[in-house]
Amino acid sequence: MEVDRELGELLEALWTSEEQGEAFLQDVRRIAHAEVTDQLLERALGEGLIVRQPSGHLRLTPKGRAMATPIIRRHRLAERLMCDVLGVDVEETEAAACEFEHSLAEGVTRAICTLLGHPRVCPHGRPIPEGECCRQAEEQVRAILLPCDRLALGETARVAYVSTRSHARLLRLSALGIMPGVSVQLLQRWPSIVLRCEETEIALDQEIARQIYVWRTRPEEWSEAGET
Amino acid sequence: MSPAPRRRKVVLVGNPNVGKSALFRHLTGRYAVVSNYPGTTVEISRGRLSLEGIEYEVIDTPGVTSLIPQSEDERVACELLLREQPDVIVQVADAKNLRRTLLLALQLVELRRPMVLVLNMVDEMRERGIEVHGEALAELFGIPVVETIATYGYGIRHLLRAIPRATVPRNPLEEQQREVLGTAAGSALPMGLLVEWMEVGDARFRQQVEQLLGRSRLARVPHLWERGCRGCPTSRSLCRELERARARFLESALLTLRKKGGERARSELTPSAFRFWVVLLLGGVGLLAWEEVGGYFQWPTLATILGALIRRYVADPTWALFRAYRLDLWHQLLFGSRVGGGAGLLTEAVRLFALLAPLVIPIVVLMRRSARFLSSLGRWTRQPLTGIPILLVILVLIYEVVGRTGAQALVGVLEEILFGAYLVPWLQSLLPPGFFHDLFVGPYGLISMGLTYALAIILPIVGTFFLAFGVLEDSGYLPRLAILSDRFLRVVGLNGKAILPMVLGLGCDTMATMTTRILNTPRERLIATLLLALGVPCSAQLGVILGIAAAYSPAVMLTVFGVVASQLVLVGHLASRVLSGERSDFIFELPPLRVPLVRNILLKTWLRLRWFLAEVVPLFLGATLALFLLDRVRFGARTGIEAIEEGVRPLVVGWLHLPAAAARVFLMGFLRRDYGAAGLFDLAQQGALTTTQIIVSLVVITLFVPCLANFLVIVREQGWKRALAIVGFILPFAFAVGGALGGILRTLRVFS
Q1: Separation of alpha carbons B104 and B21, rounded Å
Q2: Range of the domain at A34
Q3: Model confidence over A47-61: pLDDT tens digits?
Q4: How far is A167 from chain B (nearest CA, A)?
């Protein structure tokens, strides 16, 4: 479904502010990347994409939500792509991601999602809506970025990022040596995940291991990369 | 305050399981327990050191993964660092884990105290072909760096020289921090740490920090130390910035610090030698299996064959000789009683050696000489398919050492021969009948009961258990159980980490209750404490259960353990439902497997036994005295004990269907679990109990209240209210389960 750009921006802004609680018009105006004119608002209301609640805040209707989902998904996947693969700083990804969200074809989106290992959250920690490919966990494209529990046994990979909102967990992992750039080896998958990180063997829950995303590389490649 | 000049303080800090306690012993000559699992030390130990005319106080701390504490033992260590204002911080590091070493060092340098960095276990580092540029490391932080192998005492001299020369380290990240934090970074406060403490530290710790660093000083950096700012975007992004700076620094530092081309220091076994030892090892396992299975069906096993051979060719021919020199006691101690056919010290030693040698020798050779075997063994022990058979072999070995050698052979020699056939009869003939006769050697005599229980029943059991347990502790095997048990422990609201206190509880519930400090949340600590008090049998109880089971049938042991384990799961599950809170993250470090050092095990066992004797013997004597007095006091026609037995008759006889004399056992159990267990052992030996009664009383005494020492530790760790609540729950629960079990067993007529 083709959505014109301004309407898309409005829906996206409303989605984002709804994630933080109730969305008022001024919030939406503030974060939207396009000017939210009254005319645009009327159009969205008229098409039944959003409704105005009696208390004054705005809400996405199921129809509007369905329309916004792919936009949000493309935007956040684009952020992930630039941040993890291209190494762009999180703060600098915003402008480019805004371009991507309008121009990516569905096939390309799916390929990126698979490449990144069907990530669940964007670099800012906001959830990425699931696509069809996430539900089927497609792996036609061999994922190069994936949660570490999906590595083959004995495979070594480099940590790309740890996608958790719990700072304590992040700290605990990094104190044991699991931090971006470090290579880890998957030693065991069941009953608990066991990783080797340098000379430390670490046992952890599956849920935590799923949050550790790694680059799939061969060890030789990585040691060369580390030297340069 | 004493007028003497203040002793300078040296604090040993480092990641868990890097050898702080081993170094502490070398520095001070005082022994802090050394084992191979993270969390051995949960308390602070202090000792003295005199160096170049200056007096030092050396402080050993629990291990920390970072200075942002996430469990009780880490909090203790972090607070100590802030409170004591150490004159020297000695960071003890695992040399092969350079990244983690640097991470902690980067936090420690913020404290701006003179520092020494110790790279410990350099032998293991070299074995893995890793080399570290010590001088570059020293230059990076501007502090002395020393290489040691603490278990062998290598490098201690260098450390002793370095301590007086400790210097205030340079913070290599100072510039980056200033960039991120602005002017605030210029103050003398550990700014990087403050940011993280505020973001992650729990409320109690932050309050401590506020107090220790001074509220007024912190007030000068308001935007970093405001309650409202915790978790806000600014503080989050500050944290992220600092982390990023640290990570960047680490990557570049590691590149320069790692030396190239270290050779693996140890040569591998040749393939044929490897195969030889593996076959021998499998043979040893087969022998052990034969011993158990054959023993059950009364086939000739190693034990019976060796016993018969020794009796026929050594014991019988020498009997006349020993007798001629009036050494018949010695003959019985060595070869067992002439009439009963029990084992003596020598027979038992030969049997145990024949059983253990084919297992232990190949394992030690393979572990020492083959890195390939060591890593395979590491894998086998943590994977269920191989890990559970290995666990079974280990349990059987413990049963052999503690249940048969300790609880049967040694107890037999000491209790029946030394005390029962010689010492007590001799004293009885010495003392004229009367008060003192009864006091020392009567039915409740200090020697015939108190000392016999303590030295002839409990001491051999606990001694053999501590030996076996020391081997397990030092091998690094115990933490591997965490992986196998994680799923299981989730049912009771804990995670794999909690297996450590649980298994340590098999040694001593009192010590294990203190070890619950390594758990991450107060809720987990409470559940673990409750389960320890409820149903984890301590070494003495375990030994008695094993000993009784060896005398009756393995089904007895399996029933008792099955019932107790099911109750643990039930109560733990209910407790985890009742107590609110989330299960904490299971992120757990596994230490490498190592061949234990005989010296350390012997030292550890000896010190534990000394502690045991000092604590237990007076208690046993006091308790026996109390029983003796109760026996002398008369209430009408009855003695005090009979009166008590009469009072609890409905419970013991009516509900549990045990003989009235069992009341005495429970009375003793109040004082110490093992004292009660010893009493039970005594009763069982006299043949006063049927199998069902044995099972019921073993279950009740296992579930029974914790001993006095354990109770006091619970009070200290959890407070009076919770301690009383725990006891108030356990006591009726134990009797309820015992009675119900007895009813079921009698209805089903499973046992006689």
Answers
A1: 18
A2: 5-60
A3: 888 888 888 788 888
A4: 7
